[in-house]
Amino acid sequence: MTKFLVVDVSLVYNAIVGRPMIHDVQAVVSTYHMPMIYVSNNGFLERVRGSRTMARECYVTALKQPCQQPPIDGVG
User: Fold this and answer.
1) Is residue 1 part of a domain?
2) Phi, psi of 39 (to 5 degrees)
3) SS3 (DSSP) at 34
4) Total domain count for the chain?
5) Which helix (H) or strand (E) holds 8?
6) Cβ contacts of 11 within 8 Å, gap of 6 or more
7) Residue 38 and residue 46 in contact, taking contact as beta carbons nearer than 8 Å
């Protein structure tokens, strides 16, 4: 099991996973082919696939949007 932090911001990524999580789930990642393969709790190989086209579109869309910082409450 892995805990994820869910944030309400516009990003070019659906998920950001680090090496500790990849190691914990014994995943294999191919940046060229864009899948992550891991062994499920049932012992089967599972795949999470990415899309270069979608990633590129999200990146371009994010570049076009102005960066907005939400106000930080209780600071100052």
Assistant:
1) no
2) -95, 125
3) coil
4) 1
5) none
6) 62
7) yes
CA distance 55 to 28: 20
Any domain includes 57: yes
Are the beta carbons of 55 and 35 closer than 8 angstroms?
no
d(CA 7, CA 51): 22
Average pLDDT over residues 8-30: 78
Q: What is the pLDDT of residues 22-44, one digit of tens each?
A: 888 888 888 777 788 888 888 88
Long-range Cβ contact pairs of 65-73 (< 8 A, separation 24 or more) = 65/10
Among 10, 6, 13, which residue's Cα sits nearest to residue 54? Answer: 13
